[in-house]
Design a protein that fits this description.
The protein folds into 3 domains: 105 residues, Sandwich (Immunoglobulin-like); 175 residues, no CATH class; 118 residues, Sandwich (Jelly Rolls). The termini are far apart. It is mostly beta strands. A hairpin with a 2-residue loop joins strand 4 and strand 5. It is globular. The strands form 5 sheets. Strands 9, 10, 11, 12, 13, 14, 15, 16, 17, 18, 19 and 20 form a 12-stranded mixed sheet that branches.
Length: 508
C-alpha cells in the first residue's frame, strides 16, 4: 500500500513537473520577420572570414534577445532592440594567399545553407524565422578569336541568383572595356528605362527561377574607336562553362539552348544548340564562322538568343504545331551540310546537338517528336537521345548486357553501402502515361530502386525481380522523373543493382 502511494505520488510529481516545464519552455512559433542574410568575404592580408549580415524587422512584441543560428550552430546573440547582427559564417586564419582563402569561400558559397533567427519574448515564448541560402547558378560564355595577336577574349556571366530581380539591379555589372588595343566583346543587352538606351552587361543576374531569354551581342572593340581590320581569316569560338557542376548547382534540370538570329531578317535559318551537350561533348566549344575583313568598333556582327525555357523540338516553323509544313521544311533541307539549318536538330550526338548535317538522325528525332512520344531504349550507347541528368556517384551507365530489347539498357552505378545514384529527366509532357521496363537484383527491403515524379515516390522495388513493364499516370507540364537506386548500411544481395529500358514519355 505504501509502495503504491509512493508510486502514485511520483507520477503526480512527474506530471506536475512536465506541466511546469511546458509552461516555462513553450514550443517555438514561426513568424515572418522579413529575415535575410547577405554574405561577403573579408581579408586583411593574413586572416580571412566570411561575414554574414543578418537583418530583420522587429515583431510587434517585446523581445528580450535574439539568437542567430548558422546551419544549426549557434552563432551570436543580439539585444532585444536590434534589427541586425554581424556574425562569422566561416572563419579562417593564416591562409598562405588570398587565392587559398577564396577557394574556401567559394566552396562555402557553392552549397546551400540554413540560417535561423530566434526571438525570445519577454513573456518567455520564442518565435523564429528561417532564411534558406541557395548558391547562385552560373553560366560563363567566352567569345574567343584564335590567332588574333592583339585581340583579347571577351567574357560574360549569366547568373541566376537568389536575391536578383528581372531587369537591372545592383547584382548586374555593366560592360567595361579592357586595356588591350583590340579585343572581343560579348554582352547581354537589356532594354533600359529610357527608350533607345539599352544596357550592356558583363554580368547579368536574374532570379533563380527566371526563364526570360537573354539577348547576346558579339562585336570587336578598338579603344581608339578605329575600325578593326583582320587581314586574314581568324577562327572564332564561343566557349561555354558551367562551373557549378561540381556542386550540383548548374541550373538543375532546366534546358539551356542558344540560337543565332538576325534582327534584320526574321526568316534567317539557324540551328538551336543544347548548351549542356556542347559542354559535355565538345568541351564547351561552339565553333562559329571565321572572322575576316573590317569591323566597326563595338558594332555587333552577330546576335544570339540564350533561353532557359525552350526545348529543342521538331516545330521547325515556330508555330507551336507539328504538321506537314514542318516535314516539308525538313525534306527541303535534306542532306544539307552547310551547318546553318534549323532542321539540324539531332546529329550523331543525340537530340539537340547539331552536327552540320540534315540526315536520318534528324528525321528520327522529328518523327519521335511528331508522334508525341519521347522514347529512349538507350540504343545510342549513351544518355544523349533525351536530356538525361546523372546524380550520385558512381553514375548510372549504359550497358550492352542485360537489355530487355535491342543492344543496350541503363544500369545503376555500383554504389557503396549508404549511397545513392539517380537517373533524372525533366521534360514537357502531355497528360497521359509514362512507362518503362525495370529489372532489379538487390537485397530484399534493403537496397531499393525508386521511381519518382516531381520528387513524389510512385513505386519502389527490391529483391530478385525480372524484366517487367510498369506504367504511371502523369499530368501535363514540365515534369521531373527520377530513377534512384539506394543502399542501406547493411549487406548486399544478388547483383546489387537495377536496370531500366524502353522508356516511353507522352511528350507534346
Amino acid at each position: 500500500m505504501i509502495a503504491r502511494i509512493r508510486h502514485t505520488g511520483f507520477i503526480s510529481l512527474s506530471v506536475t513537473a512536465l506541466l511546469i516545464a511546458a509552461r516555462a519552455c513553450p514550443a517555438e512559433v514561426y513568424q515572418d520577420l522579413d529575415f535575410s542574410v547577405s554574405l561577403s568575404p573579408s581579408w586583411d592580408g593574413h586572416n580571412g572570414w566570411l561575414r554574414a549580415d543578418a537583418r530583420w524587422v522587429a515583431p510587434a512584441k517585446w523581445v528580450s534577445s535574439y539568437g542567430l543560428y548558422l546551419d544549426g550552430r549557434f552563432s551570436k546573440y543580439a539585444a532585444g532592440n536590434s534589427t541586425f547582427v554581424i556574425a562569422p559564417a566561416m572563419i579562417g586564419s593564416h591562409y598562405s594567399s588570398y587565392a587559398k582563402f577564396m577557394e574556401k569561400v567559394e566552396a562555402y558559397l557553392s552549397r546551400p545553407h540554413t540560417y535561423k533567427l530566434e526571438a525570445r519574448l519577454q513573456s518567455g515564448a520564442t518565435i523564429y524565422d528561417i532564411y534558406e541560402y541557395h548558391p547562385p547558378q552560373v553560366l560563363t560564355i567566352v567569345s574567343r578569336m584564335a590567332g588574333g595577336a592583339d585581340g583579347g577574349d571577351g567574357s560574360l556571366q549569366i547568373v541566376h541568383k537568389q536575391d536578383a530581380a528581372e531587369g537591372l539591379d545592383h547584382h548586374d555589372s555593366p560592360y567595361g572595356s579592357g586595356s588591350k588595343p583590340q579585343q572581343m566583346k560579348i554582352v547581354s543587352v537589356l532594354s533600359d528605362t529610357d527608350p533607345g538606351s539599352p544596357a550592356e552587361l558583363a554580368l547579368d543576374a536574374r532570379p533563380l527561377a527566371s526563364t526570360t531569354d537573354v539577348c547576346l551581342e558579339l562585336s570587336l572593340v578598338s579603344l581608339a574607336g578605329d575600325p578593326v581590320l583582320l587581314s586574314s581569316p581568324q577562327s572564332h569560338d564561343l566557349v561555354f562553362g558551367l562551373p557549378g557542376q561540381a556542386y550540383d548547382n548548374d541550373f538543375g534540370p532546366k534546358p539551356i539552348t542558344i540560337q543565332q538570329y538576325d534582327p534584320l531578317d526574321s526568316s534567317a535559318d539557324f540551328p538551336v544548340y543544347d548548351v549542356r551537350k556542347v559542354v559535355e561533348k565538345w568541351a564547351g566549344v561552339l565553333a562559329l564562322p571565321d572572322l575576316k575583313g573590317s569591323y566597326s568598333s563595338s558594332v555587333p556582327y552577330a546576335w544570339f538568343r540564350l533561353s532557359f525555357a525552350r526545348e529543342v523540338s521538331g516545330d521547325l516553323d515556330g508555330n507551336r504545331q507539328l504538321d506537314m509544313r514542318d516535314f516539308a521544311i525538313l525534306a527541303n533541307a535534306w542532306h544539307r551540310t552547310d551547318g546553318v539549318s534549323a532542321c539540324d536538330i539531332a546529329g550523331h550526338w543525340g537530340l539537340g546537338l547539331p552536327d552540320g548535317h540534315v540526315n536520318s538522325f534528324d528525321l528520327m528525332a522529328f518523327c519521335q517528336s511528331w508522334a508525341g512520344v519521347g522514347r529512349d531504349g538507350f540504343e545510342s550507347g549513351d544518355f544523349e537521345a533525351l536530356r538525361w541528368l546523372l546524380s550520385g556517384f558512381p553514375f548510372w551507365k549504359v550497358v550492352s548486357s542485360q537489355s530487355r530489347s535491342g543492344l543496350h539498357c541503363a544500369q545503376a552505378g555500383p554504389i557503396d553501402d549508404g549511397g545513392r545514384t539517380a537517373l533524372i529527366i525533366s521534360i514537357p509532357c502531355r497528360a497521359g502515361q509514362v512507362s518503362f521496363w525495370r529489372k532489379v537484383s538487390s537485397e530484399n527491403n534493403g537496397d531499393v530502386l525508386r521511381f519518382s515524379i516531381d520528387r513524389h515516390i510512385k513505386a519502389e522495388w527490391s529483391g530478385q525481380l525480372g524484366w517487367e513493364r510498369v506504367s504511371f499516370p502523369i499530368e501535363a507540364g514540365v515534369r521531373t522523373l527520377s530513377w534512384e537506386y539506394s543502399k542501406d548500411d547493411a549487406s548486399a544481395s544478388g547483383q546489387d543493382t537495377a536496370w531500366i529500358d524502353d522508356v516511353l514519355l507522352p511528350v507534346p
